[in-house]
Amino acid sequence: MADQLDGSPILEEVLGDALEPLKVFHVKLAEEGEPRGLIGPRDVDIIWERHILNSAAIVPYVREATEGMRFKSVADVGSGGGFPGLVAAACLPDHEFTLIEPMERRVAWLAECVDEMKLENVRIERARSEEVIAAMRKRRDMRPFAVVTCRAVAPMTKLSGWTLPLLKTQGRLVALKGRSAQAEIDKAAKEIAKRHGVNPRVVEAQVGPGLEPTHVVLVDKR
User: Fold this and answer.
1) Do the annotations mark residue 97 as ligand-binding?
2) From CA 127, how far away is CA 157, in angstroms rounded?
């Protein structure tokens, strides 16, 4: 089944140099994504828009958060099929990505994708976020991250505890969310503050010319 955006100039305009590795990712998703339980049957002809461009919408916010930083480190929590972590890593080759994913079959998928896309700035951590947070508290050699990203992992009440402790001071959470993003932030205000999160806000992030924008939650860490 052809993708609605195959061959569209929007892809090059939005993705630039990342288009080539992301074409490899797109083919793999189209062929294996549904049978391996990574995308739904209705997504097969809209992979570019729903999964790849949607994930790439976080890139400007990650870049803004790491500007001027020596270590441009990003943790992607609950990477699953590779959204947004693999897409962002392809778009930001000067950033170091750690994909945090507990499920073995998804870790295997991510490793195959990293290999086939020839991404050299990605490592995969088979763990739950809480395990990485616990390890970071014990080990001196594990630095907190400049940015934490995620998509559709959990509501903000839970997500705050899984993501904000991974961030360094003045780091930023960049979370792709649905339309209820503001309501989630309002509900999670205490949790966010408890984890030293400040200025939680929702921005409308551009996905591509003529395409419906998405919602991104940004939280800074004090």
Assistant:
1) no
2) 21
* 14: in domain: no
151 is an annotated ligand-binding site residue: yes
Phi, psi of 62 (to 5 degrees): -70, -45
Host H or E run for residue 204: strand 197-205
What are the residues whose beta carbons fall under 8 Å from the beta carbon of 138, sequence distance 6 or more?
A: none
The set of residues, in sequence order, having a beta carbon less than 8 Å from that of 13 and lying 6+ positions away, is 208, 209
How many residues are recorded in the chain?
222
What is the span of the domain harbouring residue 163?
57-221
* pTM score over 0.90: yes
The domain that holds 158 is classified in CATH as 3.40.50.150
- pLDDT single digits (tens) 115-167: 999 999 999 999 999 999 999 999 888 899 999 999 989 999 999 999 999 99
- 185 located within any domain: yes
User: To which residue do tokens 């594990």 refer?
Assistant: 142
Long-range Cβ pairs for the range 213-216 (8 Å, 24+): 213/57, 214/54, 214/57, 214/176, 215/176, 215/177, 215/178, 215/179, 215/181, 216/57, 216/58, 216/61, 216/174, 216/175, 216/176, 216/177, 216/181
Q: Any binding-site annotation on 129?
A: yes
Per the structure, the count of domains in the chain is: 1
Whether 137 maps to a domain, the answer reads: yes
Q: Which two tokens stand for residue 45?
A: 């002809």
